[in-house]
Amino acid sequence: MKRLILWAVAALVALPAAAQTQEAFPSYVQVYGRAEKEITPDEFYLQIIINERDSKGKISVESQQRDMIAALKRLNVDIDKQLKVANLSSEFFKKKSSVATAKYQLQLGSSAEVARVWQALDDLGISNVSILKVSHSKIDQLKEEVRVEAIRNARKNAATLAEAIGQQVGRCFYIYDSNSNVVPAVYDNMVLMRSAKDVATAEMQVEEDPLEFKTLRLEYGVQAKFVLE
After folding, report:
1. Among 53, 141, 196, 218, which residue's beta carbon has the most beta carbons within 10 A?
2. 115: Cβ–Cβ under 8 A, 6 or more apart, which residues?
3. Per-residue confidence (pLDDT) for residue 59, from 0 to 100
4. Closest among 191, 185, 43, 58 to 105, alpha carbons compared
5. What is the C-alpha separation between 95 and 90, in angstroms, rounded?
6. How far is the C-alpha of 30 from the C-alpha of 33, rounded, in Å?
7. What residues contact residue 88 under an 8 Å CB cut-off, 6+ apart?
8. Are 161 and 29 in contact (CB under 8 A)?
9. Could you tell me the end-to-end alpha-carbon distance of the chain, in angstroms, rounded to an integer?
């Protein structure tokens, strides 16, 4: 009985609030706005793995590392800013022999640079190279631009619907802001490696976008409610 009384009281309290909302906005339109943008990446993250097993133990990881750093410097790569050590480990077997593995992350700024680095590493016998991800240096700014475009498109949709029934769109009183989404670009690293080698060894040197990297797609959606006047 007490529970029923509490429900009744809650319903009575809610009715005036609902009535006020309905009175404040007697008619409205609810719409969805969507926007997307494709951008060309200008940040390329490579994963480089150096393993003594790749060279049958004849060349140490330290030696390969020195050769790699020297090659990158010749290509004007800023080692301090662009190259990071991701992992370093050793495994011990029953024969008391150790195999060390070093993992690095390298950030590059163009597809031409990717091609040159890939070829230089392959020349050193470092073939365990893959694309971790691609991004854009102004990704946050671009996300905001797409976000703003989404709410503007929502208002355009509302105006179109309102015009169809002889009304106009008033102020917005509700916005549901969904999360922005970056659609990742997935690559076949073996195909990309072969393409990089072809570009780097070609007689004609191509400086601008020699590799066909996929564009990044930003998507954003919002729900909004506008007063009808």
Report:
1. 196
2. 195, 196, 197, 199, 200, 210, 211
3. 74
4. 43
5. 14
6. 10
7. 100, 101, 102, 103
8. yes
9. 46
Nearest residue to 139 via CA among 221, 42, 220: 42
CA distance 146 to 177: 12
The whole-angstrom separation of Cα 52 and Cα 70 is: 19
Read off the tokens for 191. 């195909």
pLDDT tens digits, the chain, 229 residues: what are they?
544 444 444 444 444 554 454 546 579 999 999 999 988 899 999 999 988 755 555 677 888 889 999 999 999 999 999 999 877 655 444 344 555 788 899 999 988 898 889 889 988 888 889 888 889 999 899 989 999 999 999 999 999 999 999 999 999 999 998 766 666 666 666 656 666 666 555 544 445 555 677 788 888 999 999 999 9
At 99, list the tokens. 């195999």
Using the Cα atoms of residue 152, residue 154, residue 160 and residue 164 in order, give the sign of their dihedral: negative
Residue 183: closest CA among 151, 147, 215: 215
DSSP 27-43: SEEEEEEEEEEEE---E
Per DSSP (E only), the strands in 40-194 are 43-51, 83-92, 98-108, 129-135, 169-177, 181-183
pTM assigned to the model = 0.70
Amino acid at 139: I
Q: How far apart are CA 82 and CA 106, in angstroms?
A: 6
Which tokens sit at 227?
């007063």
Residue 108 has which token pair?
A: 């590059």
